[in-house]
Amino acid sequence: MKFKGFLSSFDEHSLSWEKHIVIPDAVFVEMLKTATDKRIICTINNSVTYHCAMMPKGSFHYILVNNELCKKLKLQLNDEVAVEIIKDDSKYGMNISEELEEVLFSDPEGSLLFHQLTSGKQRSLIHIVNKFKNSQTKIEKSFVILEHLKKQKGVLDFKKLNDDFKEFAQKNTF
User: Fold this and answer.
1) What radius of gyration do the chain's Cα atoms show?
2) Using CA atoms, how far apart are residues 20 and 48, in angstroms rounded to an integer?
3) What is the DSSP string of 5-64?
4) Per the confidence metrics, is the pTM higher than 0.90?
5) DSSP assignments along 91-134, one per residue
6) Residue 19 burial (CB < 10 Å; 0-12/13-18/19+)?
7) What pLDDT, in 10s, does the model give residues 46-95?
8) Kind and range of the H or E element at 72?
């Protein structure tokens, strides 16, 4: 579905994650018929495509637009944008790196624990790995994540996970 929208903010003193595009009610209602989990793939100005969700706020729904996308598209608040959204049929609601897929494949116990997490927690962990460009770093982060889940008996604790990342980096610094 295509529509025109505007880059908005919830507050003039907004944080970067508060930039968004309001989804017209008719578009939201129509998309909800196929995207019942509200996961969509959004294309802005026919140039940047990304996985996201239709988020609720009071009486309307919106799509988040982060600072990186704004810079890439040279968008400022109140700019008009062309938006196309389609249902996200991907397994996790976002792309997963080959490195994380391989680590999951090679560690059945860790994979089982990963797949027992909520889909939102899975996406958070996938995002942690995806933000790195270096393949070796992606493998290391994936390994630490699965070791963390095994050590925590499947319970994800982001503070302890950060500590595990730091500990791994200290042990593997030459």
Assistant:
1) 18
2) 15
3) EEEEESSTT--GGGEEEEEPHHHHHHHHHH-TT-EEEEEETTTEEEEEE-EEETTEEEEE
4) no
5) SSSS---HHHHHHHHH-HHHHHHHHHS-HHHHHHHHHHHHT---
6) buried
7) 999 999 999 999 899 999 998 889 999 999 999 999 999 999 999 998 88
8) helix 67-73
Q: ∠168-135-68 over CA atoms, to 5°? A: 95
Partners of 2 in the β-ladder: 84
Measure the CA–CA gap between 147 and 31, rounded to whole angstroms: 38
CA–CA separation, 132 and 128 (whole Å): 8
DSSP conformational letter for 90: S
CA distances from 152 to 2, 109, 118 (A): 44, 13, 16
